[in-house]
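Hi everyone, sorry if this is the wrong subforum. Our group has a chain we'd like a structural model of before ordering constructs, and none of us has done structure prediction before. Sequence below.
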Amino acid sequence: RSFVPHAKSLTVLSHLRKTSTKDFDTMFLSFCDFVLTRFKRDPSTERLVSLFAQFAQSDTSFLPVIVKHMCVRSTSSSKACRFRSVQILTKILESLPDDYEIEDEDWTNIESVLLSRAEDKISAVRVNAIRGLERLQDPENQEDPVTRCLLRHLFSDPSKSVREASLATLAVSNRTKPHILRRIRDVHPYIRACVFSVLSQKT
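Answer:
Right subforum, don't worry. Here is the predicted structure as tokens:
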């Protein structure tokens, strides 16, 4: 009922994986697939999602395994599966230290998945995809596809939650600041207020 038992769970999971890596991965990913069917954001499911991300961060050899699995599942026709797989990928990225090294192929796959899911028809999927793009952006690069994606959703996404996520995720730079300031004319007062909050925190 809390996140406290996670430390003990991580130790147990690590031990089990060392005992039989292949069998463990098969069973663990099968359990992940069950969680991917849960679209409703109940506390127990959210705790499991956090546990998956923490275990991936704690076991460097398992991280690419679950990343690849979630990238594949993100293309599902099920909105729940797309939502949870993208959420788990984003949670993994958020849990990694700034100096954590991921193979270039994994970075490329994650970026491709998140950019794709940022265009999902379900706003909850778009929100999580956009949040996951935070570490992948290069705001000073005029050709950066991630920054372009964030700016596009900041201005044109019909969902307030997605515009808010874009605003919170977008790095403040000489290139992006003028675009951020233009959001003080957003149709929703909350987004207009968020502009000043973001600028005060990031500049």
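For your construct planning: The mean pLDDT is 93. Residues 33 and 105 are 23 Å apart (CA to CA).
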